[in-house]
């Protein structure tokens, strides 16, 4: 298949990344995931504007450095670093040939943010996601999220998202 990815140097992108077969690994191994993010950011800097980690997938909003559009390399290194910290899952012959451990789905969803309204829509989607999936009643109750950072900055009220926020829009990629 021919995947066409939009690349905008210095752009801001929304991503959805999912574990293979939606295995609930991420929260149980959150320190390994954090270490993988630190490793990638030390080698290939970028800013994590927002993130939510759920048991079987994560959503994040990244701002890449000026002149840099290589988010694929960052995801490759991150997936590999996280996977190396976990025992291998049963691998298919194709996964074995590609030295994959069966931790992640091969692809990821990417969307380049177009404007401030698009940015706000994706921020809301990220932070409301644990409520949407029934893990908590309010984004403030989910510990694996950047929501509290944005509350401290005054972007969200502490009680935002207790009940579906008005105007919340579905975002592709899940």
UniProtKB/TrEMBL annotation:
GO terms for molecular function: sequence-specific DNA binding; transposase activity. One of its GO terms (biological process) is DNA transposition. InterPro entries: RAYT_transposase, Transposase_17, Transposase_17_sf. It comes from the Bacteria. Residues 8-129 form the Transposase IS200-like domain. PANTHER family: REP-ASSOCIATED TYROSINE TRANSPOSASE. This is Putative transposase. It comes from Thioalbus denitrificans.
């Amino acid at each position: 298949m021919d995947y066409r990815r939009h690349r905008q140097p210095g752009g801001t992108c929304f991503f959805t990344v999912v574990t293979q077969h939606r295995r609930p690994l991420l929260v149980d191994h959150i320190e390994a995931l954090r270490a993988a993010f630190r490793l990638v950011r030390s080698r290939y800097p970028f800013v994590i504007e927002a993130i939510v980690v759920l048991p079987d997938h994560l959503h994040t909003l990244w701002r890449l450095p000026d002149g840099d559009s290589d988010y694929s390399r960052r995801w490759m290194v991150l997936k590999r670093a996280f996977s190396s910290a976990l025992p291998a899952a049963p691998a298919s012959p194709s996964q074995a040939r590609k030295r994959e451990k069966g931790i992640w789905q091969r692809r990821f969803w990417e969307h380049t943010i177009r404007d401030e309204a698009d940015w706000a829509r994706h921020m809301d989607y990220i932070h409301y996601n644990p409520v949407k999936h029934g893990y908590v009643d309010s984004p403030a109750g989910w510990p694996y999220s950047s929501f509290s950072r944005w509350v401290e900055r005054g972007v969200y009220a502490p009680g935002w998202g207790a009940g579906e926020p008005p105007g919340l829009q579905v975002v592709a990629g899940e």
